[in-house]
């Protein structure tokens, strides 16, 4: 997750990877602070959430662009960062029913209203997840 930032940023700092669970699925969270990205000229604070599904890993990220900031600092207070982390927890992780009418998603079934959208997807398509309220 940080390889590109190591090369593009004047200085980076990261949190440790924090294993968690979302809707019964394994998940992890990490924050990366880039004091100044040489490509954009901005400072960046990036929050990552990874969720392990049955057949794939899913990643959500939230990027805050700021004025460049001093190495080893973050231009936001802990309350602001906690809200950003919470916004990534609002993404709903779910499991679709097995093909042919199998069990409906085990311990974390998808909402019934999502069926038409999910049925139109194939394994080769990318899926974009927007946090609630965005």
Hey, roughly how much beta strand do the residues contain? Answer: 25-35%
Unreliable residue stretches: none
Number of helices in the DSSP assignment:
3
Shape: elongated
Query: What percent of residues adopt helix (DSSP H or I)?
Result: 10-25%
Give the beta-strand count. 5
Helix-strand string: HEEEEEHH
Kindly report the oligomeric state of this protein. Answer: single chain
Q: What's the end-to-end separation, in Å?
A: 24 Å
- Structural classification: alpha+beta
Radius of gyration: 17 Å
Average pLDDT works out at 77
Largest sheet geometry: 5 strands, antiparallel
In words, what does this structure look like?
The protein is α+β, with helices and mostly antiparallel strands and 134 residues long. Helix content is 17%, strand content 28%. The protein has helices at 3-8, 78-89, 115-119, and strands at residues 12-14, 18-22, 25-34, 43-52, 57-66. Strands 1, 2, 3, 4 and 5 form a five-stranded antiparallel sheet that branches. The two termini are 24 Å apart.
Write the SSE topology.
Layout: H1 3-8, E1 12-14, E2 18-22, E3 25-34, E4 43-52, E5 57-66, H2 78-89, H3 115-119
Antiparallel strand pairs: 1-3, 2-3, 3-4, 4-5
């Amino acid at each position: 997750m940080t390889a590109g930032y190591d090369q593009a940023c004047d200085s980076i700092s990261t949190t440790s990877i924090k294993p968690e669970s979302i809707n019964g699925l394994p998940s992890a969270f990490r924050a990366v602070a880039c004091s100044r990205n040489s490509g954009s000229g901005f400072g960046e604070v990036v929050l990552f959430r990874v969720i392990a599904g049955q057949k794939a890993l899913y990643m959500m990220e939230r990027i805050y662009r700021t004025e460049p900031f001093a190495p080893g600092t973050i231009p936001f207070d802990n309350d602001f960062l906690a809200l950003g982390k919470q916004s990534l927890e609002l993404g709903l992780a779910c499991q679709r029913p097995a093909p042919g009418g199998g069990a409906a998603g085990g311990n974390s079934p998808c909402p019934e209203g999502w069926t038409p959208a999910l049925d139109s997807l194939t394994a080769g398509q990318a899926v974009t997840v927007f946090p609630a309220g965005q």
